[in-house]
Amino acid sequence: MQAEPKKSLVGEEYEVEVGPVAHGGHCIARTDEGQVLFVRHTLPGERVVARVTEGEEGARFLRADAVEVLSASKDRVEAPCPYAGPGRCGGCDWQHAKPGAQRRLKGEVVAEQLARLAGLTPEEAGWDGTVMPAEGDKLPTGEVPQWRTRVQYAVDPDTGRAGLRRHRSHEVEPIEHCMIAAEGVSELGIEQRDWSGMASVEAIAATGSQDRQVILTPRPGARLPIVELDKPVSVMRVGEKDGGTHRVHGRPFVRERADGRTYRVGSGGFWQVHPKAADTLVTAVMQGLLPRKGEMALDLYCGVGLFAGALADRLGDEGAVLGIESGKRAVEDARHNLADFDRVRIEQGKVEAVLPRTGITEVDLVVLDPPRAGAGRKTVEHLSSLGARRIAYVACDPAALARDLGYFRDGGYRVRTLRVFDLFPMTHHVECVAILEPAAKGS
Ligand SMILES: C[S@@+](CC[C@H](N)C(=O)[O-])C[C@H]1O[C@@H](n2cnc3c(N)ncnc32)[C@H](O)[C@@H]1O
Predict the structure, then answer these.
(1) Which residues are known binding-site members?
(2) Cα 143 to chain center, whole Å?
(3) Where is the TRAM domain (predicted)?
């Protein structure tokens, strides 16, 4: 006998008291029947009408939007962006919260993940509980930091207009202007052009150079448009068959500046989005590791070589750095960017495959900056066996970080300090830098 399909609750409304913030840009509430709701567009302590956007009867949890605020938090503000709100642009999560409150919420998420997945209190992690804004982001009330140097616009197939995706949807919210886009992106005027035939248009404005780039992803069979923007740009396209990024005109990379060096970043390669992020993270990592001349270091998930370059500068001619990165083009860029260092080597491949093959049994320092999924148990176990005197873990997902910190503890490492940065204002994203050392040393 086939099970009855469960009744969808989408569109149902519940009046609820909103509880604590949860990882992902929403808060937790419960219906009178005890079903858990993840509610967006609200804040802890509010009383709201929550309308279900996903979920069915008996589901472990429902997703919902606060469509009416019955009792508002003192941290609530009118969202400065006209495209924010239930069912609208999915790019930002906390437009309706004061900047200080956004950072407090992010701090609560990090603390909760540390407690739940690593069994650590903030004190045990050497963290004062604060979330630091990036330099220059402490703006007078009402001003929104314009930090997004890379914006992926989706194109409405019917109108050819560029916009941003709605939350957990393929639908496009057409916009005139994204408030958090960096000036170098806004001044291209992407939103004012017709992009018919394109599925998406990514705009990049480099930091420390005038390089601007757009990356076009055409729909199957569509011809590329002639790109005429308000500022000169290089143009790339994503190949329909191979998914690779190909040059249309101009340089196939942008030049970014960080820590006093210029880094070439080819299309599709990773670079931090906030203009101050690369410098902020290099400073936090170097202050935590305190590299000494002549030491041997690893830079794992090294991208185009940001931390490898910073380490090489500080380790001197006797020191050595090995970087590992899976992206082929990023590896070419890293080798180019660090060509003036004889003792920097960059290996291409997945860390979990390449690291064991290197035969390295001892290092002094490690930086790891994995993607959102984190490094995982095997890689952490391997790293824990190399005897590093300090390890810097740069993390864009506090849940993966907390899980991996648990593995490091099993491997004999303790967290010496943790610093948390708001490098993605208005969104729920947060960046952490944990510095680890052998537990025996700290105990
Ligand atoms: C968060 S980025 C960090 C890049 C660099 N550290 C920086 O700050 O510019 C993560 C990088 O890891 C690479 N990557 C993802 N999975 C990987 C894996 N399993 N092994 C090696 N590199 C990986 C991605 O291509 C990306 O360049």
Answers:
(1) 272, 301, 325, 369
(2) 22
(3) 7-68
Listed in sequence order, the residues at least 6 apart from 100 whose beta carbon sits closer than 8 Å to its beta carbon are 75
Q: What number of residues does the chain have?
A: 443
Q: How far is the CA of 334 from the centre of ligand 1 (A)?
A: 12
Cα separation of 196 and 193, whole Å? 9
Express each pLDDT in 93-134 by its tens digit.
999 999 999 999 999 999 999 999 999 999 999 999 999 998
What are the strands, taking DSSP E only, across 361-412?
A: 365-368, 390-395
The answer to whether residue 432 is catalytic is: no
The tokens describing 62, both together, are 């429902």
Ligand 1 lined by 325 (C-beta under 6 Å): yes
| ipTM attached to this prediction | 0.99
CA-closest candidate to residue 130, choices 98, 105, 94 = 105
**CA-proximal residue: ligand 1, atom 26 (nearest):** 303
Q: Which residue puts its alpha carbon closest to atom 25 of ligand 1?
A: 327
- Distances in Å between the Cα of 296 and the Cα atoms of 13, 293, 315, 377, 408 are 59, 9, 8, 23, 20
Which atom of ligand 1 is found nearest the CA of 299?
6
